[in-house]
Amino acid sequence: MREWLTWGSVGMEGVVFKRLDHVYRPGARDGWLKYKVRETTEAVVGAVTGTLAAPRTLLLGRYDTAGRLAYIGRTTTLARSAGAALAGLLTAAAPGHPWTGRSFAAGWGSRETLHVTLVEPELVVEVGVDVARDASGRWRHPARWHRARPDLTPADVPPPR
Question: Which residues are CB-neighbours of 7 under 8 A, at least 6 positions away?
Answer without folding.
Answer: none
